[in-house]
Design brief:
Chloramphenicol Acetyltransferase, 2 domains, 4-stranded mixed β-sheet, 8 helices, 9 strands
Amino acid sequence: MARDTWYRLDNVGKFYSSQAGSSAQTVFRYAATMQDDVDPAALQHALEKTAGVFPNFNVCLRSGMFWHYLEQSAQVPVVQQENLPICYGLHVHAKSVLFRVSYHAARINLEVSHIVSDGRGSLSFFKALLHAYIEERYGVEGVPAEYDGSDHQKSENSFDKYFERDKAAATRAPKVYRLKGWRDEADPTFFEYHLPAKRVLALARSWDVGVTALVIAVIMCAIRAEMPRRDRSRAIRMDVPVDLRQFFKSTTVKNFFGLAFVSYVPGDEDEPVETVARIVQDQLKTATQA
């Protein structure tokens, strides 16, 4: 059966396509550090194999008469040695491919435009790429496939399939505290923070919260520490992406997530991180209930 040569944008892709070409493009990254320095030839072969399994990643954003759409790129994706700022914009012109694979020393990077996919969908692509690289680089046979769904399942627009408009509810937004200061959207600041996963997981379990709630609580308390006293009656609010595949029978690798809104009002007293984490956990649980 012939493969599609173009794809409709999903709901999230439609929103992010409005940023195409601007300095505010939404691009995210996965990275994996291997035991040895990367073999570029092996990584190139692995990328070609993976792009063949996930054809809806190797696409360009095109403009129709009334709307944008995604078109299969005629070019074979090429591995690059890392030479650009992290999450540098992907859409420059009509033939720009909306994902990038690069390497530096022992690290393999995958950067994806949110026009194409979300974190969970791109993780399937990235795992498949790493599996293919291990097979090619080290001759390891029988590495299990990360994803064996059909092209239709990969490119399904699950928003259209599962969204029920009559069940959508308005969200109440409290008065929020807004971070102030200089920001360069063209060259955003980022940082890496390395944590021992086992200890973080153990701490979250001891507090009876998820790792997501724990991390959010730590960020909220860090913001609280910098808030002026006069603003502590305002809420620290965060929008948390929630993978919707866990609630519906979807295996799409396109965007399929919702946002859970969590907030915390510091008040006059500094509550411990554990208390804030439990508040966040309760809000996440309520927001993700069917």
